[in-house]
Amino acid sequence: MTRVFVPIDAGALSVGAELVARAIATEAARRGVTVELIRTGSRGLYWLEPLVEVATSTGRIGYGPVAADAVPSLFDAGFLTGAPHATRIGQPEGLDYLARQERLTFSRVGLIDPRSIADYRATGGFRGLERALEMDPGAIVETVVESGLRGRGGAAFPTGIKWRTVLGTTSDRKFVVCNADEGDSGTFADRMLMEGDPLVLIEGMTIAGLAVGARHGVIYLRSEYPHAARTLRAAIAAAREAGYLGASVAGSGRAFDVEIRMGAGAYICGEETAMLESIEGRRGQVRFKPPLPAVAGLFGQPTVVNNVLSLATVPIILERGAAFHRDYGMGRSRGTLAIQLAGNIRRGGLIEKAFGLTVREVLEEFGGGSLSGRPIRTVQIGGPLGAYLPESQFDLPLDYEAFAAVGAMVGHGGIVAFDESVDMAAMARWAMEFCAIESCGKCTPCRIGSVRGVEVIDRMVAARARGDDDGVEAQARLLRDLCETMVSGSLCALGGMAPYPVRSALDHFPEDFGLPAATTSRAG
Amino acid sequence: MSNHDWRPAVDRALELHRHQPGPLLLVLQAVQEATGFIPPEAVPVIANDLNLSRAEVHGVVSFYHDFRTTPPGRHRVAICRAEACQAVGADRLVGVVKDRLGVESHGTSGDGAVTVDPVYCLGNCALSPAVMIDGHLHGRVSPERFGLMLDAIRGNAP
């Protein structure tokens, strides 16, 4: 029986993967051919979705993008044996886009049935957990410290150090909270992982629980991700059934279980303390720190708060050792970065690779330029609070420190490309407007500053329209002053970083605001 | 909505979640799942049951974008307005909504068929622009196709 793989990833479904899967089942039945249809995550080659793969004697052969009405022609061509067809791409691993990647965290995504314990085990799943069960909590923590793993959510704080703090607390009730509130535009890696390999996240959370002495895990998942919720729920149920979650994890006598709490459409709940408030059933307002969540987090108890990808990278570190992970990367950015290429780009998708690729390599060699075919004028990296980079900075390597040095951030690794039709004054205004919409309201620089920011940019645009250069200059000074106040005076990264896209737009694209064009880059 | 309509849903939600730690969000989500919105009359009932003030419950309802205090249309359309979708013309989709339904990016069409909400990222950024219709995600949505999709759901019974 031939095995045929069709993604159930939300992105693949958004361009018709469900219809393709049904068409394959219908057509196979009509022709009296038996196929085993396996639903997987996405390979992250989104321009090829829906991407259908067939297991042949020479490996998995891909066809994409496949439209449902093209399915009969695939059968006619003999795709079940990997025969030629207009959509045939050969082995996906042979594509430059995948061949150049180093998939550690995403090693199984797109390959296996995400809800199958058997598939997971057959591809090395739970080996990290088995290793962890033989180790002292302190040894697990030190392995993660030595690996150099840093938080993948954006702040890049060393994961192991956080764990060490929680391990050092004495409470008998501790929590592991997974931040799955992936709200940054241009990012979808957490979603892809939860839909493509949720068991690796569950395994990572379990290892975290063993390491710090927590028995409760909570995944805070954004409500915009209903597909991820379904897959996660199925995976949690399967893990309980197989004894990997519950009163005795893998027969060890040690308890750990995971529950999902859904968000309710508030960007700020991706900030860890706002998220804890939300899980506790309150408004998602940011807490003052200290105390750190590691000391007094969820319900006032010591809490590990990590991003999906940080936790999902833990199993391979335990399985292969700290050095294996540390050997990837550059400088203090160790391991791999899940780059998400999005926006106006021909080949958008997931690129997991050791830190150090340049932005230009990503845009040109992976992305193939803009979708519209016009030159890429700017990219925003690190979500709505990330800086806009001009073409002159496209040779920056993707590395936390290199980005910080020019006032930008890698963040969660999302890269959004814009072609030359973009109006940077409008994007700067949007950054302020978004901050105003999503501000939790606790601190004044963010709550009021963002509203004033929108107004100041509106006045700049109006001054420009009536040819009032002095007015534009005066408002620009006011805007920079406002940005300074927000950066220095806000309680968290929302108000503290919303000025980054604004300032970068002013620095690199002043002509869009009616200011004299920049002669040299002022960033740095 | 009369008392008779929403009360069982609220009772069920409370029954299901009142013993969990930090239950308010869970209760509100269950009520909205069942009734489509949070009836303002339910706020004091929930507050009383969970030993919270009405202000605390109202504060949570009004804080989160997902919660509605009025009934939604029969179909729900979420248009992504975030950067990746803006980069490939999501604003044109808002124009389609205005033309077809006569509402801005937030609101319910006059015939009660469709409620439109902006959303800030559906996580489909490599296949922008993205919309979600009744929980189904759609990528690479052109204005033309979006118009046809809206026509289709308006023509259908719920």
Highlighted features:
heterodimer; A: 524 residues; alpha/beta; Glutaredoxin; Rossmann fold; Ubiquitin-like (UB roll); 4 domains; 5-stranded mixed beta sheet; 16 strands; 15% strand; B: 158 residues; alpha+beta; 2 domains; 47% helix; 13% strand
Structural features, described:
The complex is a heterodimer of chains A (524) and B (158). By secondary structure, chain A is an alpha/beta fold. Chain A has helices at 10-14, 17-31, 71-77, 96-99, 117-122, 127-133, 137-147, 159-167, 189-196, 198-212, 226-241, 272-279, 308-320, 322-326, 359-366, 400-405, 424-438, 444-465, 469-489, 493-497, 499-508, and strands at residues 2-7, 35-40, 52-56, 59-63, 88-90, 175-180, 216-221, 257-262, 303-307, 329-330, 333-334, 336-343, 349-354, 376-381, 388-390, 414-419. Chain A has 21 helices and 16 strands. In chain A, helix 10 (198-212) packs across helix 13. Chain A is globular and about 75 Å long. The model of chain A has no long low-confidence stretch (mean pLDDT 96). Chain B has 158 residues and is an alpha+beta fold. Chain B folds into two domains: 3-63; 75-154, Glutaredoxin (3-Layer(aba) Sandwich). At the A-B interface, helix 1, strand 12, strand 16 and helix 17 of A face helix 2, helix 4, helix 5 and strand 5 of B.
